[in-house]
UniProtKB/TrEMBL annotation:
The name this protein goes by in its record: Cytidyltransferase-like domain-containing protein
PANTHER family reported in the protein's UniProt record: FAD SYNTHASE
Gene Ontology MF terms: nucleotidyltransferase activity
Keywords: Nucleotidyltransferase, Transferase
Record's keyword annotation contains Transferase: yes
UniProt entry tagged with the keyword Transferase: yes
Ranges where the Cytidyltransferase-like domain occurs: 9-121
Domain of life: Bacteria
Taxonomic classification: Bacteria, Candidatus Magasanikiibacteriota
Length: 126
């Protein structure tokens, strides 16, 4: 019997700003626990053309210090589904502009008997 509702979200979270804090608080409000998957440095560089200002380890440490975050973990290389399958969240909270890995996530959810609920959150002002 699962007693706590878990929420998972993904992001780079390089240089945390008020929009990030509001997004994470809204994601946490969807459940009892919030697991934040922090993108790898090389993934950030591949998607944006630049390395992050802070290393993945530093970004995880900052996120772990936020009240809304139960735990921050390192993302896996090239596949967000690895952590989804491993942690089996009840809800996946997506950012308003999040596109990486979404089509694979949607296809995977369609194949599951009890998929996580996927919720796209609105944009939050900085």
């Amino acid at each position: 019997m699962k007693t706590k509702r878990s929420v998972m979200c993904f992001g780079t979270f390089d240089i945390i700003h008020p929009g990030h804090v509001k997004f994470l608080a809204a994601a946490r409000a969807l459940g009892d626990e919030l697991l934040v998957v922090v993108s790898r440095d090389d993934r950030r560089a591949a998607l944006s053309g630049a390395m992050p200002v802070h290393t993945q380890r530093e970004r995880i440490a900052v996120l772990d210090g936020l009240k809304s975050v139960t735990r921050a973990i390192a993302g896996k290389k090239n596949d967000i589904l690895v952590v989804v399958r491993q942690h089996r969240p009840d809800i996946i909270a997506l950012g308003h502009d999040q596109v990486y890995g979404i089509s694979a996530l949607q296809k995977w959810c369609e194949q599951q008997k009890n998929p996580p609920r996927v919720i796209r959150l609105r944009a939050f002002n900085r």
